[in-house]
Write a structure and sequence with these properties.
Distance between the termini: 129 Å
Strand order of the largest sheet: 1-4-5
Oligomer: single chain
Strand content: 5-15%
Structural class: alpha+beta
Radius of gyration: 48 Å
Number of domains: 3
């Protein structure tokens, strides 16, 4: 049996390693004095406080901006609903004189002995009303001897064309159509030749 001796580091080697570690720690402490550590922590604390202040300011301004936007949205919705509710008010105010003229004409109809002034009065009312429509950008869709166009006309019936050149054209207009700012608001009801 052979006995092996375990190799143990000598105490001198261990002492030497401990001394080197202590020396390195002292050197590190000499490089960073305690006052510098404190000033670095003070700097970090100051930066943290500054960041917290900036965060609070940004959060506050964000909340104010959100509140302003919400107020703007509510105000816009209110204005829009009022516009929808009262949007036709100016149009209705301008049509009231035409209604007044019709009422005066109807009151005269019962007592009139001569029909000619009544007819002239109704023609004047009609002219006034067509002027009102023109002022509001309402125009009549022209159908006289026109070509049938589905974008403007609605064929209610087709009849045999009286002549070859009248095929596909409008023979008669049963109900006038109207445009509002170049948009059809009512199609012309027409009779088309085939």
């Amino acid at each position: 049996m052979s006995l092996k001796k375990e190799h143990k580091p000598s105490e001198n080697v261990q002492n030497k390693e401990n001394e080197e570690l202590e020396s390195a720690a002292e050197t590190q402490n000499e490089e960073t004095p305690i006052s510098e550590c404190c000033s670095e922590s003070d700097k970090l604390a100051a930066e943290l406080a500054e960041l917290k202040t900036k965060y609070a300011d940004l959060s506050n301004s964000h909340l104010r901006l959100m509140a302003e936007f919400d107020n703007f949205r509510k105000r816009t919705l209110k204005e829009k609903s009022e516009l929808i509710k009262n949007g036709g008010e100016s149009t209705l105010i301008r049509i009231l004189p035409v209604i007044d003229d019709f009422e005066r004409a109807m009151s005269v109809l019962g007592t009139a002995t001569d029909i000619k002034p009544v007819v002239e009065g109704i023609e004047l009312i009609y002219a006034k009303f067509t002027d009102f429509l023109k002022q509001n950008n309402v125009t009549v869709i022209d159908t006289e001897n026109g070509v049938f166009d589905t974008e403007y006309h609605e064929a209610i019936i087709t009849i045999p064309a009286p002549s070859e050149e009248m095929k596909g054209k409008i023979i008669d207009c049963v109900q006038k159509g109207y445009l509002l700012n170049e948009k059809v608001i009512r199609f012309s009801k027409v009779v088309v030749g085939e």
